[in-house]
Amino acid sequence: MYRSESGSIIKRLQTTAPRGRPLDSADLATYGVSSDLAYCYAKSGWLERLARGTYLLAGDTLGRDGCLRFLADHLPGLHIGGKTALAWQGVRHNLPARETLTLWGRKNTRLPDWFSARFPARLTVRELFSAQLPRDFGLQPLAESPAGPPVSVPERALLEMLSEVGVHQEIEEARLIMESARSLRPDILATLLRTCRQQKALRLCVGWAEELSLPWASRAREAAGKKIGPSRWVARVRGGRTLILKP
Prior knowledge:
Layout: H1 3-16, E1 23-24, H2 25-29, H3 35-44, E2 47-51, E3 54-57, H4 64-74, E4 79-80, H5 82-88, E5 101-105, H6 113-116, E6 121-125, E7 139-140, E8 151-152, H7 154-163, H8 171-179, H9 186-195, H10 199-211, H11 217-224, E9 233-236, E10 242-245
Parallel strand pairs: 5-6
Antiparallel strand pairs: 1-3, 2-3, 4-5, 7-8, 9-10
């Protein structure tokens, strides 16, 4: 490749490639950069190699949302869920100085080192809802970041958080967060409850909503209906505690 042609490609990369996120081989190919040329650019300092087939423009800085969008484009079903999704939408108790991102997905995989080194995160892989629920139901970018990663709406995020109570989520904190979830949309929540597969999440959602006198409590009880059995639900949770949930 002639030097002038290579310089033209580099100029296009620098002026039009997205910033704040990695570039994979497919991204680079749209600018005429082959795998061999990407390797040469990395050796010359025009690209920074993050992992095999993954690069960053020289002088660029990885941003949280750009990296999450990149991962969502590459990992099936990856989205921001649970406590993180609630906090991003104003439903929170408190936030630590450095937040550990709660990510959900459909494939059990290790998050790339270049991401984990910059953004502490934990990936949960669990089919919380039945196949009757479309997989993208309740997942959408935040209004202020339309090009950002998919985020669970508060109704879905609440059930995701409750499903982790006693495992990765402290019981008391979950209850305090849920106390702030007063403005959930009953119709959206009802759809999620009718397809929720986990007894713990169902019972915590209905039981705590009634105890906290949340405005959507009666609709939640109606939606959960016969999915909640007539007996108590008992489980040992982290720290040796016993979680007993009434029907």
